[in-house]
Amino acid sequence: MKPLKLTMQAFGPYAKTEVIDFGQLENHTMFVISGRTGSGKTTIFDGISFAIYGRASGEGRTGAELRSHFASDDMLTEVMLQFSLKGHTYEIHRSPQQEKKKERGDGYRTVTAKAELYEWTNDGEKKLLAANVRDVDEKIKEIVQLDANQFRQILMIPQGEFRKLLVSDSKDKEQILQRLFHTQFYKKIEEKLKIEANALKQKVQSGAEERTQLLKSIQSPSEEMVQLLEATPLNEAAVLTQLAKDIEDLTAQSKHIQQTLSKQSDLRDEWNKKLDQAERITIQIEKKEQLDKQLQQLHARQEEILHKQEEIIWAEKATKLEQQEKECKALKSELDRLHERIEQTKKELALKQEAYIQAEKVWEAEKSKEDERHQATEEVSKLNAMKEAVYSLDDEQQQLEQWKIQTKQLEDRRLQLSDRLEEIERQMDQVEAELSSVDQWQNQLYQEETKLTKVNSHIQLRHEIATKQTDIALLQQQYREFKEQEEGKSAQLLQARTTLGALESDWNKHQAGILAATLIPGEACSVCGSTDHPHPASEVLEGPAKEDIQLAKAELERLEHEHRQIEKNKMEKQTRLELSMEALEKLEQEAQASGLTNDFTTHELLEQKQASEAIIQEAKERLKLKTKWMETKDTLKQSKRELQQEINELNTKASHAQERFVTKRAEVEHLLKNIPVAIRQKTTFDQALQHAEKWKQQLLDQFDQASRQKQLHEKSVATVAATLQEVEYMHKGKQEQLEKERNVFLELMNQYQFKDYKQYESSKRSEVAVKQIQQEIMTYNEDLRSVSDRRQELIQLLEGVEKPDLERIKEELAAITEQITAEQERWAVTSALIRDCQRIKERAEELNVDLKELEEKYQLIGHLYDMAHGNNVHKLTFERYVLASFLDDILAVANERLVKMTAGRYHLLRKTDRAKGNAQSGLELLVFDQYTGQERHVKTLSGGESFKASLALALGLAEVVQQYAGGVSLETMFIDEGFGTLDQESLDQAIEALMDIQSSGRLVGVISHVPELKERIEARLEVISTQSGSYTEFQFFG
Questions:
Q1: What is the DSSP letter of 63?
Q2: CATH number 3.40.50.300 is the correct assignment for the domain at 2-184+876-1036
Q3: Rounded distance, CA 465 to CA 446, Å?
Q4: pLDDT (tens digit, 9 = 90+) per residue, 547-592?
Q5: Which helix (H) or strand (E) segment is 80 a member of?
Q6: Which of 456, 557, 684, 953 is most buried, most CB within 10 Å of its CB?
Q7: Per-residue DSSP letters for 952-977?
Q8: Are 127 and 121 in contact (CB under 8 A)?
Q9: What does residue 1026 show for φ and ψ, rounded to 5 degrees?
Q10: Do residues 421 and 644 make contact, with C-beta atoms less than 8 angstroms apart?
Q11: pLDDT tens-place string over residues 380-416
């Protein structure tokens, strides 16, 4: 990669647009960058690095912090770089996220980061390769084939990075080489091997323990198995062999029990049939007895049913009369209602007649006011004739007052603007004074920002270390808790195993006692088949329930599962704890390398940060004020011009207003002569007119109201009188109809043979009551028929049958059932033992296969982890071994240049001796001194010697990285490092080394203040700083 043109806008100390055209160097392949401290020399490197990677050349500076404080608010920070690579020319544009002043209104808006990448074609056209930050970053990585860390270490070496690789210890050098050669992959392999080895070890231990506990849970009744299980250590192979034999014996015993159960079941089925037949006959006898009682009860109710039938006949007659009775009652109710209405209508007619008399009196009184109504009409007409004159006077007076007010306002405004003009002139003098005091803040801002960047880095490191320490403390606490839980759970496991063993022992003794009770001298044992029983077990009266043993087994399995889970969690916390402690060690080393010590507390660092931020904030505000004061100055000038113009216009308007005021006053005086004083005001005139019109209208309304009321009451009297006559006629008709219907009702009573109204009233029944009585009679008849028929059927069925003895049959059946239950329990016990033994045998064989496979795998993975972790002869981890190989290649190339620069005296070596204790080693450097013939540490070199060694190492690193990167083109090198520690001879040797680089066509740029170096190199890029920002120019000598 070779830069062609760098353009920076509002970047660092470059306030405006700064263009550095490297094409001006022409045939010069080495140049010096010089200028005052803080002028922006390193910013040139930052610009190149930011354009390519979006990051500055050194640590602690981000894209957003590189914005120029000299620049105006409306100018965006941007960087453009043209560079050539492998015969192609590229152009990249990049800008960071930043705040830009809004085009309208106050405040700022956030502009997001942008990036664009182009390629110049042979036809001179730009071809877009990527148009956003992410795509540009990926494309740059593909084109350049170096990441930012590699770029800084081999193409652009910033301040502080030059000597770091030489003197750093093994751990620091490991971090540097990791970033350059991306060897974190090897570290991840080591960590993955560790996790897998620990997991395999845990699985092997858990599997072996599960197998042991599984075998100890065997409940076989054989004496041989009991002896094997009590032996220490447990002979697992012998246990499995005996277990297979016990399963065969138990299976034979189970078959014998099943044959006995089959015979007993057949006998129980015969007795069940006898019991079913006896129960059926017994039920039939009991049913006949119940029917006899029911028939007797039904015969006793015959008289009651006859009475109910007669009750229904009289109820039906009463129902036929009931409708006629309802008709009479309805007519009587209607007659009473009409009588009440006649009385109410008579009262209403009397009230209406009285109201008519009063309305007639009011009408006569209003009719007598005819003269008063005529006078009110004439007064309204007179006032309406004067209305136009009064309204005109009021408008003219208002216009007169408005011209008077306007004249006064114009004069007041003219005086106000004159005062404002004097104030603006005073403010303009003040702005000029402020503008002269702003420039001195720029240098102080740059110094404080540099200081703040370093403090922020230290605070962040402190925070990360504290966070990691907290994490470690938490992991340690969790590890201790899991360890305590594991110990507690182990104790619970031991107790559970003891409890289960005791229960199973008691169970076996109880079962042995039960079996011993069934032994008969001379007959074969159902377990072992022997006919000789010399020592039968004594009977145990009570043994543990099978459910208790199952619960104990379930509890043991639960505890074993929880124990394995706790142990797994403990191993996980232990692994995370080890990784966290390694990360903490790296952070502490990084803090030490950055100069962060315990001399300053975090509180003191925060105070330094706050102090710097306060100064920076004040400086930024001051710098922002410069643009503000310039804008204010322009604003004040414009305001002064506008005020002067407004004062001139006000003078013209005031003269015109005075003339209109005099004319309008004469017109008002003429109108006042023709209008009475009392009604000259529009409001008083309107009140007088309104009062006259109201009085006139009131007199007319009163007369109309009286006339309407008289007519209304006269009509109301006539209406009520007609209604009364109609209601009296209706009352007479209803009276005649009621008499007629009553005579019909009496005739019907005689027809249906009712003695009197009382008998009729007592015979009435509701429809529901009649239906209930009818249903009762029907139910009685049906029950009588049903009971008689069923009783006759049972008499015929039971003829010649005797009642069976149910109790004796049930006793026989219970005895045989008890025998079957006993045999079933024996069979269930035996089957459960077979299933448990078979399950244990199958699971143990599965565990044997799994454990063999796990142990073989653990031997391989564990050995690989030991080797990768450094548990080898050389105490080297896998990753460090790879890095040592890279470092040897770098030293081979570096020594070729170091020998020339030191006249053959020094030769760099990698220290291969193991460090004392657990200290990491393998990457530290020694120097072999030809003068003494001995090796010594590179830290013992003088400043000049150290610089030459560092330069040789950097050049060697550049070549090796290019080789391993594959296809990387290293056509440029920038060095931001002082040469002031070198004597004249050493300086010449260093320059010759650089000349060797540039002689191969590589462009070399050096930042230096050393006069001898400036004299030896003909091309110079001078950075000139001013109060308004910096700028650059190429200078050539010789």
A1: T
A2: yes
A3: 29
A4: 888 888 888 888 888 888 887 887 878 778 877 887 787 777 777 7
A5: strand 78-85
A6: 953
A7: HHHHHHHHHHHHHHSS----EEEEE-
A8: yes
A9: -130, 175
A10: yes
A11: 787 777 777 777 777 777 877 888 888 888 888 878 8
Sheet with 1003-1007, strands from edge to edge, namely 156-157, 972-976, 1003-1007, 30-35, 1019-1026, 1029-1036
Q: 893 by DSSP, 3-state: which?
A: helix
What's the rounded Cα separation, in Å, for the pair 856 and 847? 14
Nearest CA to 937 out of 977, 957, 909, 917 is that of 909
Which is nearest to 17 in space by CA: 5, 8, 30?
8
Residue pointed to by tokens 């400043």: 943
Supply the mean pLDDT for the chain.
Answer: 80
Name 81's bridge partners. Answer: 6, 92
What phi-psi label fits residue 916: left (phi over 0), alpha (psi between -120 and 50 degrees) or beta? beta
Q: Distance (Å, rounded) from C-alpha 283 to C-alpha 187? A: 91
Helix axis angle for 682-751 and 370-435, nearest 10°, is 120
Q: Is 190 helix (H, G, I), strand (E, B) or coil?
A: helix
Measured from the Cβ of residue 283, the count of other Cβ atoms closer than 10 Å reads 9
Nearest to 1 by CA among 969, 964, 958, 955: 969
For the chain, the domains span 2-184+876-1036, 461-596
SS3 906: strand
Q: How confident is the model at residue 76 (pLDDT cuts 50, 70, 90)?
A: confident
What single string gives the DSSP state of each residue in 544-596? --HHHHHHHHHHHHHHHHHHHHHHHHHHHHHHHHHHHHHHHHHHHHHHHHTT-
What H or E segment, with its residue span, contains residue 902?
none
Find tokens 């080895």 and name the residue: 197
The answer to whether 359 and 706 have CB atoms below 8 angstroms apart is yes
Residue 241, CB half-sphere, CA atoms under 13 Å: how many? 6
pLDDT average, residue stretch 227-235 = 83
Those residues whose C-beta lies under 8 Å from the C-beta of residue 259, and which sit 6 or more positions away, are none
Total residue count of the chain as it appears in this document: 1038
- Per DSSP, what are the bridge partners of residue 92? 81, 117
Task: State phi, psi for 768 to the nearest 5 degrees.
Answer: -65, -45
In contact, 764 and 302? CB cutoff 8 Å: no
Residue type, 168: S
What pLDDT, in 10s, does the model give residues 895-924? 988 888 888 889 999 888 765 555 556 788
Measured CA to CA, the distance from residue 865 to residue 849 in angstroms comes to 25
Which backbone phi and psi does 1036 adopt, to 5 degrees?
-125, 135
Q: What are the DSSP E strand ranges found in 112-234? A: 114-120, 126-130, 156-157
Token pair in block for residue 701: 């309304």
Per 3-state DSSP, the chain is made up of helix, strand and coil in percentages (nearest 5) of 70, 10, 20
User: Residue 121 belongs to what H/E stretch?
Assistant: none
CA distance 165 to 147: 18
What distance in Å separates the CA atoms of residue 525 and residue 583, rounded to the nearest whole number? Answer: 72
Note the pTM of the prediction, 2 decimals: 0.44
Tell me the two tokens of residue 874. 């050389």
